[in-house]
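Take a look at my tokenised protein here and describe the backbone shape.
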Amino acid sequence: MQTPPDHAYPTHWEADVVLRDGGTARIRPITPADAERLVSFYEQVSDESKYYRFFAPYPRLSDRDVHRFTHHDYVDRVGLAATVGGEFIATVRYDRIDERGLPAKRPEDDQAEVAFLVQDAHQGRGVASALLEHIAAVARERGIRRFAAEVLPANTKMIKVFTDAGYTQKRTFEDGVVRLEFDLEPTEQSMAVMRGREQRAEARSVQRLLAPGSIAVIGTGRAPGGIGRTALRNILDAGFTGRVHAVNHAFPEDLRRLEPEGVPAARSVREIPDPVDLAVIAVPPAGVPDVVRDCGEHGVQGVLVLSSGYAEAGPDGRERQRDLLRQARSYGMRLIGPNAFGLINTTPDVRLNASLAPRMPGAGRIGLFTQSGAIGIALLSGLHARGPGDGGIAGISTFVSAGNRADVSGNDLLQFWYDDPHTDVAILYLESIGNPRKFARLARRTAAVKPVVVAKGGRHHGTTPLGHAVPTVRVPDSTVAALMRQAGVIRVDTVTELIDAGLVLASQPLPAGPRVAILGNSESLALLAYDACLTEGLRPQRPRVLPSAVTPDDFRAALAEALAGPGCDAVVVTAIPWVAEEDAAAPGESEGTALADALRAAAAADPGKPVTVVHLAMDDLAETLAAPPEPYDPHAPREPAAPPQSSAPEAQAGPVTPPRPPHPPRPPAPAPAPDRAPAPDAPARPRPVRIPAYPAAERAVRALAEAVRYAAWRRAATEPGRVPAYDDIQEAAAGADIEQLLDRLTTDVAPGRSVALPPADAEALLARYGIHSRPTLPAPDPDAAVRAAARLGYPVALKTTAPHLRHRADLGGVRLDIAGEAELRRTYAELTDFLGSPEELRPVVQAMVPRGVDTIVRAAIDPAAGAVLSFGLAGAPSQLLGDIAHRLIPATDREVNEQIRSIRSAPLLFGWRGSQPVDTAALEELLLRVSRLVDDHPEVVAVDLEPVVVAQHGLAVLGASVRLARPPATTDLGPRRLPVY
């Protein structure tokens, strides 16, 4: 059916997946070496499951069956297995068939029969659903477009696997058998189903790590001190509600309890009679493989590796880290680390501090993820300083510091926090992003329901920490930042800004607009706040300065008046110690406390607008404002922070996704997550009145500005725009052209490499999408230039196309407005005399177009970031200043409208200094057409239109290039899988 190379073992089909209960499994092709595994697997399947698979009693596999089920050509016959601990837990296979259901004999046969078998002990874990995603992707790769499956009516579980997948399907019943046929082309519904399963599974896997019922600390020292003994001490001091075991192979054989901690002691995790959910490993790297093996055989659900000496230690350590990850996943375990700082969960029914942080943070509403232990320490100590204790303004819900991030990453925490009712704000410090495309997708979804604040270290090439074994990402930091903004992520630069933004977002409602009232008893401090508002793009009112003899009641009245006024969306209060006059009560040590009570009272009376405080020399004010106003449960269900109605009359806020109920803290047995979460059974309570205080006006205003921008994004996200459908786009014809071009141009090109299209082919392909470039005619000599000009019509431009001179008008490689033959010949001679021979310059002639603004439009596919659409002004703005705006593809009409207005040089498009505005509507349409081309055809890996001259009416594409490549076997649109670095 296909060429012999397709019969080679397809290593790219191997994948690690997270199952519904949070455990992992490995999916891989079945090989002849799996005969014994297959027989052992089949012996553990119940007679009922065998009957459902073969429609008759089938107690054992014959030798012929074993040969047939283990020998595949990986084209017309494919078998995949899900494995845990190296043993099969489920299999799936397809056989290509013709229209009569017989083995296919023609290349055009594009249907296959599919069948599953899942070990009874693993049914209900979502194994079949994961296998269906992967076998469908394999089939599409091999040219199969439809699956058929015959199922007994009593096999309701398997029927549900097919019907819930979201594919377009047909169902019939004949001769006592249900026949299902479904197309394999991904649909919006099938993608939504896959993404939903991915989120629930990955969130569940993180929840199992954060809320274990029992912990074994492996590597607990016999004497106080050391990493293992410190981790054990911190777990106990935090009041962990589960069981704790100390493990060390050097313990005496008769040691049953470790003192003075009083916890059970064992020489190996295998000696522990009870189940262990989480293993905290603090042994030298050489001993970790044996420990992980023991954990896997004991059924441990996850491991936290505090040990160092892995990828951060060089090439040998990097390979050691890969082996560790493979070993952990082979047993179905998730891994935090290695070289991790630890994890924390402050919920009352867990109280877990499995970290090297000596102090249990206060419970609150902020979720933290860091890759760096040092930054983790800085964040925890910084938050503690701003609001210590349970229920304080700076309390956290969960904390994970993943070290080398070999497995569990920020993406996993975003999946968990998305519907975690205990977390209102997600804060991440990232030093590398292994999968920017998935990060942007998850961040966008999470940001739609709660703020995501990110600071990224290692923003420049070559600065990624050694321990982070991530694929090379060629996307510049400016592009990553743009993609984060598009996804609604609040991007900050420092740890201090992470805390500042997190506090205002965790404690205050989202502002309805940029209008800010400023009041206080210091004119200078108020003016600093005013200037900071203007710098951040806010719209401050004239500051209201209170008299020097102000009292807390005066502050309360002024704040209440500002909050009640229709002209403001947020309030900044500035305060310094005041001076009492003769008959006024002199302020004492409690002046900050009294002022805090007054401000709280005003804010509680009008809780719909955010309030921030700037103070000087009033630390008791900040401490009182940060503390909970009354005893309360910081983890009680809360009203969500809805995107407020915009202060602009024409803007409307959209619906907000309600919070989902909490995961059960430690379920006695894995249970599948429901498709729809039930409503919380506890009534929501209003947010407690806590007000963030800052020692500098600039910090307070910057944090408030981030909240304003995020709120605007939330409002805009309710109406995300659309991808227009243009009637003149010839998608099918373009696809046929691309296939022919790849066949013609890639015969001698290495797999994965791209090829540049010849100019004529590039112009023809772009024309299929309504993108027409102005023709250029070669001019190898003066006579050819004259003939080209006569054909195009004067005036013309004479340009070089040599790579080192392309688009370099500043070097004299572009001559414009040539009006006649004599001028053309003279210009041609000057060009070749000054810059080089015609063979070097490769001159071309092009007709002149109306004057306008020169711009660039580009689209490119990065292996990590995905397809990105870029726009900027040609020349110095983009090349020298990097003034380029980026959007993910497919871009919507709303996104490209914002894109062209987001560059700093955008005023040149809209009539700057009396010039005529250009046709931005035509420019937006061009961007949308390029986006459609790249989105429709993943073989198009780069499009470069430069320059695009945008005139008062219309535009002209003067230069165009296109690159093609065979699409990768798997993309973010493929079946879910865990990354391997």
Observations:
- DSSP finds 27 helices and 39 strands in the chain.
- The CA atoms of residues 376 and 768 lie 52 Å apart.
- The radius of gyration is 32 Å.
- The first strand starts at residue 15 and ends at 18.
